[in-house]
Design goal:
Structural class: alpha/beta
CATH class of the largest domain: Alpha Beta
Largest sheet: 9 strands, mixed
Number of strands: 18
Number of helices: 17
Number of domains: 2
Bound molecules: adenosine-5'-diphosphate, alpha-D-glucopyranose
Shape: elongated
Distance between the termini: 16 Å
Radius of gyration: 23 Å
Strand content: 15-25%
Helix content: 25-40%
Length: 476
């Protein structure tokens, strides 16, 4: 089967969060049995130079190329450049709208840039004669509306990675969608008096998925539907939750070249200790104690991730022996709070502001626990990376976190610690339980349970296959 994905992110070329990891690892698995293509934007700063094949493709369909609108002229002067990444073919959209960007999001004119990109992805699906078209998040959602209106409609799937970001824009900004080459009737996409690209994707796709069954349920109600639960309920029969998988080659403590010392389940204790010792040296805190719990936190410092709840719990539980290593960037208020703690409590708290892939791996390998206090979490990947590294996740009971971490009273099934979201005392109590677990012999079984879990794509790829089949059946 020929599958074309359309996405704004793909690891390691463009990564802002989990979407990049999810799509790179899913397509790697799919490419074992299918022909897999991915359409991506080409931006100014890329994580890796693509391996170009020299082939180029048009970004506009011949029947649309004779019109005279601004959008048509932009699409006519743009093209897709083909590159290879293992067995996956990547198609980078080379356009003046993207070429200069230092990063993919947060730049002006996103309503226009991603609409043009969405058209280009739609055109590419027709040019490549894809058998399934799979778009991700609001950035490529309009391509599904174009697909639905197409004379040569291709079975389609829309995956929602995060409903908090919807690409909603005032109508005065989106009038161009009525013109060539889009020719869309946009009134069905109205939501709160704005044109909502996410809603367009939900209404137009053959099938819809999100990245965990738990999050699927949450999005069918408010507040986690972020205003769109009514549309998701309308499409409820075509809406499935499929848990993300992880790339077990990229995230494997036994072969990870980014960590100080590799280790397997047999030698996890020695391996972690060495990684902890060397991490403390690298971050300039060689005096930090090795025999107390080290808790790692990594992520975008945004509302979603719930860091203020952690800060409150941390201050309330100052008596605990835990040490903390935090990596992330985002909201200034949270960054400043972390800088402050790092400054006034250097023996307890370390904060690295920024994005650092290699440090993320080192923190996973060195930490005893990994904290994710999210207020909502469509899937979350770090709890699964933590399992692979024998690092006990402490997570809030939301979305994909509650689907993957179990604080069972039966030690055979325990794979982490779970607390109630947005609740500092519940989080504080979880930190107390972490201490008890760290100093008990139970920790051996828990680490073994976790390191033996299989979070790879092998089974979950099949779940995508069956949703693709549903989308295909719909058009028969
Ligand atoms: P989200 O996509 O909501 O940000 P996920 O848990 O799905 O959350 O994925 C986040 C990914 O981004 C993980 O691989 C995490 O390690 C990585 N990440 C987030 N912030 C940073 C950072 N500052 N440095 C390195 N990696 C980061
Ligand atoms: C989003 C979500 C995250 C999920 C990722 C990959 O960014 O916030 O929970 O893991 O997408 O699907």
């Amino acid at each position: 089967m020929k599958i074309l994905h359309a996405s704004a992110e793909y690891f390691p070329y463009i990564k802002m969060g989990g979407l990049a990891d999810m799509l790179a690892s899913l397509t790697k698995e799919q490419a074992k049995t299918e022909e897999v293509y991915v359409a991506l934007p080409l931006i100014g700063t890329m994580g890796k130079e693509p391996k170009w094949t020299g082939k180029e493709y048009k970004a506009i369909l011949p029947e649309d190329a004779n019109e005279t609108t601004m959008a048509v002229s932009l699409l006519s002067s743009a093209k897709f450049l083909e590159a290879e990444e293992s067995d996956v073919k990547l198609y980078f959209f080379d356009s003046e709208l993207f070429r200069h960007l230092p990063s993919i999001y947060g730049q002006a004119e996103e309503h226009y840039r991603f609409a043009i990109f969405s058209y280009a992805c739609y055109a590419l699906s027709q040019i490549l004669k894809a058998e399934v078209f799979h778009a991700h998040d609001w950035h490529t959602a309009l391509s599904l509306a174009l697909q639905k209106n197409s004379p040569k409609i291709i079975p389609s799937l829309f995956t929602i990675h995060n409903l908090a970001y919807q690409g909603d824009h005032p109508h005065w900004m989106t009038g161009f969608l009525k013109e060539d080459p889009f020719r869309l009737v946009t009134s069905p996409f109205d939501h709160n008096e704005k044109c909502n690209y996410m809603k367009a994707g939900i209404l137009s796709a053959g099938q819809i998925t999100t990245v965990s069954p738990g999050y699927r349920e949450e999005t069918l109600r408010e507040p986690n539907g972020f205003g769109l639960s009514y549309v998701l309920n309308k499409r409820g029969n075509d809406y499935t939750g499929i848990l993300n998988g992880i790339d077990a080659e990229e995230w494997n403590p036994d072969s990870d070249e980014r960590i100080f010392q590799t280790y397997s389940v047999k030698h996890w204790k020695e391996g972690k200790r060495k990684n902890k010792e060397l991490l403390f040296q690298e971050i300039g805190r060689p005096h930090l104690p090795l025999d107390v719990p080290l808790i790692g936190l990594i992520g975008r410092l945004t509302y979603q991730k719930g860091f203020p709840t952690f800060l409150q719990a941390f201050l309330e539980r100052r008596h605990l022996p835990h040490r903390y290593v935090v990596l992330g960037s985002g909201d200034t208020e949270t960054e400043n709070a972390f800088f402050h703690l790092s400054d006034v409590m250097p023996d307890v708290f370390y904060f690295y502001r920024g994005y650092n892939e290699s440090l993320a791996h080192k923190i996973e390998a060195a930490s005893d626990f990994f904290l994710m206090p999210s207020l909502f979490e469509p899937c979350g990947l770090n709890q699964m990376y933590s399992h692979a590294y024998g690092t006990i996740p402490i997570v809030s009971r939301v979305g994909g976190l509650k689907d993957t971490v179990e604080e069972s009273s039966d030690i055979r099934f325990k794979t982490g610690i779970v607390f109630e979201p947005n609740d500092a005392s519940s989080l504080g109590y979880a930190l107390e339980r972490a201490k008890d677990l760290y100093f008990s012999t139970e920790i051996e079984s828990v680490v073994k349970n976790m390191m033996n879990l299989d979070w790879t794509w092998t089974k979950r790829k099949l779940e995508y296959d069956s949703v693709y089949q549903k989308a295909i059946e719909l058009l028969k």
